[in-house]
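Ticket opened by: R.M.
Priority: normal
Category: complex prediction / small molecule

The reporter submitted a protein together with flavin-adenine dinucleotide and asked that the result be attached to this ticket for the collaborator who will pick it up next week. Submitted input follows.
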Amino acid sequence: MIRKACVIGAGIGGIATALRLNKEGWKVTVFDSNSGPGGKINQINRNGFRFDTGPSLFTLPHLVEQLFELYGANTNEYFSYDKLDNITKYFYEDGTEINAWQDPSEFAMEIEDKTNEPGVNIIRYLHHARKLYQLTANTFIFQPFAISGIFKKDFLKAGLNFKKLNALKTMHQVNELYFSDPRVIQLFDRYATYNGSNPYHTPGTLSVISHLEHNIGAFFPKQGIYQIVQSLYDFSKQNGIRFSFNDTVEEIITKDNTAKGVKANSGTYDFDAVVSNSDVFHTYDKLLKNKKIPPKLLRQERSSSALIFYWGINGKHHNLDVHNILFSNNYKEEFKQLFDNKNIYEDPTVYIFISSKAVETDAPAGKENWFVMINAPADFGQQWDHLISRARQNIIEKINRMLDLDIESKTEFEEILDPRLIEEHTHTFQGALYGNSSNSRFSAFQRQPNKSSIRNLYFAGGSVHPGGGIPLCLASASITTAAVKKHHR
Ligand SMILES: Cc1cc2nc3c(=O)[nH]c(=O)nc-3n(C[C@H](O)[C@H](O)[C@H](O)COP(=O)(O)OP(=O)(O)OC[C@H]3O[C@@H](n4cnc5c(N)ncnc54)[C@H](O)[C@@H]3O)c2cc1C
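Result attached by the on-call engineer:
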């Protein structure tokens, strides 16, 4: 008998789970409230410009390739990408400009040339980050995380090397141990924001994130980030996965603590397994009518959100690259405002992502597509309109000051995304980009596991184990599929 599964959400984690389950012989239907796939990975096309609206940094591409390879397909026929030469271009208020070259020794030389930091410290740090990855990846990223797993080999290995994990120090403290130049410390502190956390609180173990970009590589799809979704979606349809768009799931039907199917806009359906790719808060709050949100989820701090301006820009700016950072002059205060005061600091770190530097067709000739983002707190009902107009002014002044531009006069049009809209577009609780933050050393232990306590109900995506971001969502899909397989032998 063919078993039927549904996936609630066509986010990257949802599509990847659908592909994996389909390969295991399940008949899979994916529901999404939106009119197309991708969730937070989306795009805007306007006046000849194309913008990726969500993620922009792409690491561990082999996790995408695995999905094609699972079916014996040649990834290159569907999806292709390049390695970036310059991972990110960093600008500081004192006039320093640092290119984070992909090659670690070139990057170390650049740091030595532009700052007071000996290049050898970069090499030592990246070596440490590699070790951290080797010690933690299997336990914390690629396998289900459960207390019952503490006797497994990988967990024991991590435990025996506990001191090296730097779990009792913060990321900032670890960076201070390795570096003395505040610009270099700030550069490596920034990796906390890759999962929406605060470098002054998040455990030092998360220095591992820099390993992904600097030791493995920072990549960019040849047709932009949305190509990841488009290629996987096309491939899913080719392989018989059914998608039902503009179709919101209103309820996960349960009986005797067992998921039996879903009630969607289009009708009520029976399924042998239900996978929620929706934010875990939304799933408990809106879809499981008689279940309470587990208190341990509620107790955790939300990750940061984002405020983004998409600007069609007249002119080319040769001093900028694909990824550019204009650092705040007071990073500590920026995070204090974000997480303690749920506010946007007056001198925010500004991230400018210009995909047309890599994909020429993303902007008309002689123009650039600027995605200008700052970290923002999750939505706690702040006066957003006021915060946004003040932040916009501060961002424009910072760009003009640091890049010697009059950016407003070059802006052809603007679109804005804020935490409220992120929630509205993707059912993401409070618009937090990565679910819960990792601001506590216990965060990894408190994430929602991929197998629910309700039979036949599973979770995959950025708000559950192992966490947010494209690679972790792809890892989540793999762990979830293994759980479904185990329970439906
Ligand atoms: C601005 C921004 C920048 C980011 N930058 C990066 C980056 O540079 N690199 C990186 O790796 N990651 C980044 N991320 C994070 C990354 O985008 C997410 O972690 C990842 O895309 C989440 O995927 P997901 O599988 O959890 O699903 P989501 O993208 O959250 O999608 C869930 C889908 O489920 C649907 N859904 C939910 N509930 C229902 C329901 N009841 N019925 C029907 N459909 C439902 C939603 O409509 C949505 O389409 C960024 C995110 C944002 C927003």
